[in-house]
Every structure is written in structure tokens, then in C-alpha cells.
Amino acid sequence: MSHDAQPNLIAYVVSPALRMRLVPAPASRAWMEATDVRFAHRCLPLLIANQSGWYLLSEHKLRVIWNGGKTLDSLRIEHLEGERPYSAASHFGHGILTFSLPYLFRTSPGYNLLIRGPANHPKDAISALEGVVETDWCPATFTVNWKLTRPNCPVVFERGEPIAMLVPQRRGEMESFRPLIRKQESDPQTLDSYRTWLNSRSQFLKDLQKPDSAAVRAKWQKNYFIGKMDKASGVDEHQTKLHLQSFKESDAAAGVVAFTQAPEREKILADLVVLENFVDHATCDRLVEIHRRFGKLEATSDNGVPLVGLRSSDPEAFGIVKRVLMSIQSLITDRFRQAVACDHTLVCALTAGGYRHALHADNAMVVCPQHGSNAEHLVRVQCSCTNIRIAPNHTPWRTHSALLYLSDEHTGGHIVFGDGPNVYGGIYRKEIIPTRGLLVLTPSNEMYFHQTIQVKSGVRYSMNSWFTNDPKYMNAGWLVDSGATPGCR
Fold first, then answer.
1. Is 255 a member of any domain?
2. Cα distance between residue 67 and residue 373, in whole Å
3. pLDDT in tens, 107-116
4. Which of 133, 252, 325, 417 could, after both became Cys, cross-link 430 (CB 3.0–4.6 A)?
5. Cα–Cα distance measured from residue 330 to residue 75, given in angstroms and rounded to the nearest whole number
6. What is the pLDDT of residues 279-307, one digit of tens each?
7. Which of 356, 359, 354 is nearest to 380 (CA)?
8. Of residues 87, 102, 392, the one with CA closest to residue 247
9. Assessment of whether the complete model's pTM goes beyond 0.90
10. End-to-end distance of the chain based on CA atoms, in angstroms?
11. With DSSP H G I counted as helix, E B as strand and the rest as coil, what are the percentages for the chain, rounded to 5?
């Protein structure tokens, strides 16, 4: 097979703040090393299975305890080592531990990706859940999930421990097999080979009982290991070890970005979700009324009113906000396969001729050694330096950003995506006109630099919300279960 014909497994870095190494799975396991005279290493099928994929390694040490319940808080997660943001969270309830990944995986056409637990890597009181994703076309990320099996039994994941194994599979290949059951007499050649092996095996086991026999000196039969079951010639394509290629870390993965390594325009736009009538007009009016009661209309800010305080000041309004957040959270789960909860939400008001949101991304910034990190300045000077890097900003834990427009009795105030600095400008441009009930939802990363055009007349009201997969930044007031939401799409 030529190099050009080799299938690809690409890991696009979509959450730079999360760290998770990708390595070929090794042949050995700790429990195998601990067996007497390492006898487990004599089992070639075991060794080959161990190496049949790539590991995703945890960058954190964490301890999880499940109390046996069904709710999200029935699973307690304690992060013992490693820096924020954290990838582990309780999202589905029922004792399921969910890891968010920093990668969008893509395979060559016709290949799926099996996401499974690390092969032959038993772990007490917890079991890895498996999934198969059509990664040759799917623009969504996925999560890795483990199911705890015994209540009140602490489970620890060490730093550097594999949390998943990635195994590409050609789609439809298994379905092409024709399973058959036949009598052994129908294939004399296979039957003869089987009988020869059986006799050899029986004799070897008998000889193990004889001191100083050849079997005792050999200790174990190596026929299968060497790919030669009898005196006949061996098997040409026999494998005793796999040689999976390591992921080649591009400049983008190392924090230095080149234009050719940016995701395709179609992928970016597929994750820019724009939904009309996400909430009804009555809900919009109720949220605007909250700002009119508690907010200000000044020209020097976006006049944000944090909404978590409504729990005590207006419980009915608090319930409305919570249901809206529930719908957005469910949408993120469906579209992005991410386990998240709300970090912060507020109602904002932009006034005519006043404050506008400058060009920025919500969890990262572009840093150029020559031109600095101010996004609008980088655009003005047309920075095209190749040694830029992506760095976390002041809120690197945020994974998704949601803007819900509450009014349309104004002009201007449009939001514009795609005018980012350096390689993040020119891939796409999306200008969205605010209308009442319109939701704009995106990942918070550097592919979604955005800014607002100044309001020309009237007041633009919006509900701005950010979501995270880091339990330390999940606002306890907004930890909600998924479900039907009255008034929301």
C-alpha cells in the first residue's frame, strides 16, 4: 500500500485548555507483569489485543464514589492531581462517569471509530462503556463513559492511566461476513490439521509430567507464537507484535497554528448553531422585564444582570431561566456530545451608540510574539506570523457559549463570527441579525472569535450563557437534569 493510500486517523484539537495524550497502546499490562515468570506474556492473542488501538491518557488523578443513586449528584468526583480544566463530570446520572475530550476525531472515508475501554485492563467496581462513531463524516465530538458497578466503593484513575482505546474499523466489513456452521467432516484438510494439533497438545501436556523431558525444558508450546503449528512452513502474514504509528503532533497541537491545519469551513459552520424561535415571545418578554426591574441602561457596559440571584428575589422567574438553560444544555448534549452545566448566565442590554462587545473568543486568545494578544489589533495590523500560539484566556474552562436574543425593537447590534486574527479570519464569516427568540450556540474556542456591531437605535436585550465540563465551575444554582421544557423548542 502506498503512503497516499494509507487511511488517516486525525485528532483535531478543539479544546486546547484540556490536555490528554494519545499514544499507541502497549503490549503489556501491570497485572501481566505480576504473573509468575510473566507467563501471561506467552499468550500471543492477548498481546496482540493489547496493542490493537491507541490510548487516551488521563492528565488528572481523580477519585470517584457512587452512592448507588440515579441523580447527577449521586456520583462524587474528587480531583487529586492535575491542573484545571477537568474533563471528568457526572452528566447522565446512574453512576456514569463522563470524560469530555479535547479532540474532534476524523477517519478516512469508510472508516468508523470504536471507542472502548483499554483492552485487558480490568478495573475494580467500574466498567468502560463502548461506542462506535462514523468519524469519517460526523462533525461532532464524543465523550468517554464508564459505569460504576458497586456503590460506596472508591475508584481511582491515576494520572497517565488510559481512559479509552481508539480502534478504527472499516464500515460494513463485519456485515459482509457469511457466518456458517458445518460438520467437521466437510473439510478434511482442516480436520486433519486440527487432529494433528490436538495430538501434539495432548502429548506435550503428558510430557510436562516427566522430569527432564523436552516439554519441561521448553516450558510451553511456542507453535502459535512463531506461526508454525507443525513441521510445515510457517504463515507468511503472522504477527507477533503490532507497530502502530504514533500521533504526529502538528504545530497546531503544540500551540503554534498554521492555516492549513485549521478545521474546514464546513466543520466550523456545522458547529455554529442558529435556531429561530428557540423560546416563545412570552419567555423573551419575561426575561426583558427582569432586566428592566434589576438592571441599568448605561453606555459604558453591556449592563449585565446575573440571574442566579433570582432564586430568592423572584423564584418564578428563576424557574423560567432554569428551564431555558435546561433546553440549551440538552441541545449541547445532542449536538456536541458534551457533558456540561452552566457556569454563568445573565441578561444584558446594549444601548444605542454605547458599548459593544469587542472581537474575542470565550476561552482562548491568539498570542503573537511580535504583535501581542489584542485580537482587534492583530486584525488591524494584518498579522500573518507563523509563530503564533493559542493560549487560555481568563475563562479557559468554558466549552460552549449561548446567546439568546430577547428583543428585536432595535437596529444594529448584529453579532459577527469569523473576523478573527491571523488564520482565524478569512475561513468563514457569519453575520447574524438579532430577532426575538433566536438562539446562537457555538463552542467557546478560538474558531469562534466574534464581535458585535454597535446598536444604532433602541436597546438590544439578550440572555448570555456559558457552559463548562469542569465541575469546579458548574454553578450549583443551575445544575439541571435534561427533560422537556415548556416554552422552549
1. no
2. 46
3. 999 999 999 9
4. 417
5. 20
6. 999 999 999 999 999 999 999 999 999 99
7. 359
8. 102
9. no
10. 50
11. 25, 30, 45
Cα→Cα distances 462→226, 306, 307, Å:
69, 12, 12
The residue with cell 478434511 is 188
**Amino acid letter for position 261:** Q
Q: Given phi > 0 = left and psi -120 to 50 = alpha, else beta, which region is 9?
A: beta
Q: Is 252 inside any structural domain?
A: no
Quote the CA–CA distance of 352 and 119 in Å, as a whole number: 60
Q: Does residue 199 share a domain with residue 107?
A: no
For the CA atoms of 334, 338, 341, 343, the dihedral, rounded to the nearest 10 degrees, stands at -120
Host domain of residue 208: 195-236
Residues of the chain with confidence (pLDDT) below 50: 1-4, 251-261, 480-489
Q: Does one domain contain both 75 and 124?
A: yes
CB count within 10 Å of CB 403 equals 21
Query: Hey, which residues does 413 pair with through a beta bridge?
Result: none
**Burial of 322 per CB tally in 10 Å (0-12, 13-18, 19+):** buried
Q: By C-alpha distance, which of 420, 324, 438 is closest to 379?
A: 420
Q: Hey, what amino acid is at 380?
A: R
